[in-house]
Amino acid sequence: MSRYLFFLLAVMTLFSCRSARVSNVSVTPENEVVRLYLEQYAALAVSEMRRTGIPASIKLAQGMIESDHGRSRLATQANNHFGIKCHSSWTGPMVYHDDDETDECFRSYRNAEQSFIDHSDFLLNGSRYSSLFDLRPTDYRGWARGLSRAGYATNPAYADMLIRKIENNNLQLYDRVGTGSSAGGRTNVRERPATLRGSRFGAEAAARVMVRNRVNYIIVAEGDSYETLRRDFNLRSGEIERYNERPVDELLVPGNILYLQPKRKRAEVGYRHHTVREGETMHEISQHYAIRVEELYKLNFMEKGSEPEPGRQILLR
User: Fold this and answer.
1) The dihedral formed by the CA atoms of 148, 149, 150 and 156, expressed in degrees to the nearest 10
2) Sheet harboring 257-259: ordered strands across?
3) How far apart are the C-alpha atoms of 317 and 300, rounded to whole Å?
4) Of 62, 65, 39, which is closest to residue 290 (Cα–Cα)?
5) Which end of the chain is more exposed for a tag (fewer CB within 10 A), N or C?
6) Cβ 240 vs Cβ 217: under 8 Å
7) For residue 218, how far is the Cα from the chain centroid?
8) Is residue 24 within 8 Å of 190, Cβ to Cβ?
9) Phi and psi torsions of 274, nearest 5°
């Protein structure tokens, strides 16, 4: 079994209603940057497909093209993977970037998960994209052409770019994961309750779990509390705070990452450094890559408790 297929199997293991274990998916990325992007974001694209009906292949292809596989300034400094501009309705953080015009306003997010979710909501709530949701969720070609016709991007070849990115990397296989079907009509996913320390918990809780750097995590939702999370995920008192290196009973913020297992000593292969954004802390960086804060300080020869200046390259491995 290839190293990539093993990761794909692992990253989908904890899905239930919107998450599933992949047993027969084999993708062949055209290059290393595509492979790394898939390792980081394929599970999130599939979970968003199950939430909204937007094809995972389309979301991944758009993210790769719009963010240069997560390497663009908008992606690294603003976690904006889809090039979504501010528009009049946006009240969140903003960054300014030259695009079609000089110094245009773009949305900024605390993490990539927020960007993926906002991209889904942007399409769901935009009247010019409403006809796309009449298409089958596996009709990636129809979605690509519809996005182009609706004016998502100014490039007249945008639809062809999306289709080529999908087909060159077999991203349509993620759509089959999202719908629980295969080309031959047989299921290629197996529903399985997520487990921690060998103890099972319910499908509703399992559906929230994703994996980063081989560490289980969830995104904090409205109404979450330490008490409900400990109950839902079979965790002992103090474990959530310890795993996330947070003060006891610090307020939970919706949209933030919350790990359900101890973070690791270094980032996964392929993530060697991180460029610090304005106001970003070492704890925020540690949460983004599932690395313990103490290890980040050691890797970068920094005094514990100090914070990096914007623009600094923080070593992750």
Assistant:
1) 50
2) 210-212, 215-219, 257-259
3) 10
4) 39
5) N
6) no
7) 11
8) no
9) -135, 135
Q: The domain 273-315 belongs to what CATH superfamily?
A: LysM domain (3.10.350.10)
Model pLDDT for residues 203-229, shown as the tens digit of each residue:
677 777 877 888 888 888 888 889 999
**CA-CA distances (angstroms) from residue 74 to 114, 145, 158, 168?**
14, 25, 19, 25
Whether the Cβ atoms of residue 216 and residue 259 lie closer than 8 Å to each other:
yes
Q: What stretch(es) of the chain map to CATH 3.10.350.10?
A: 195-259, 273-315
Q: Which two tokens stand for residue 183?
A: 């080309």
Could you tell me where in the chain the CATH 1.10.530.10 domains are found? 3-81+112-189
Determine the pLDDT at residue 277: 83
Contacts of residue 80, defined as CB under 8 A and 6 or more positions apart, other chains included, come to: 67, 74, 95, 106, 107, 108, 109, 115
- Which CATH architecture group holds 195-259? Roll (3.10)
- In tens, the pLDDT along 104-121 reads 899 999 899 999 999 998
Task: Tell me how far the alpha carbon of residue 258 is from its chain's centroid.
Answer: 14
Averaged confidence pLDDT in the chain: 80
**What pTM value is reported for the model?**
0.53
Inter-residue contact 271 to 317 (CB < 8 Å): yes
What is d(CA 172, CA 177) in angstroms, rounded to the nearest whole number?
A: 9
Per DSSP, the chain holds a count of helices (H) and strands (E) of 13, 11
The CA distances from residue 170 to 26, 38, 66, 294, in Å, are 8, 11, 19, 39
Task: State in Å, rounded, how far the first CA of the chain is from the last one.
Answer: 26
Q: What is the CATH number of domain 3-81+112-189?
A: 1.10.530.10
For 110-142, b where at least 16 C-beta lie within 10 A, e where not — what string?
bbbbbbbbbbbebbeeeeebeebeebebbbbbb
- pLDDT per residue over 279-294, tens digit each? 889 999 999 889 999 9
pLDDT of 12 > 80? The answer is no
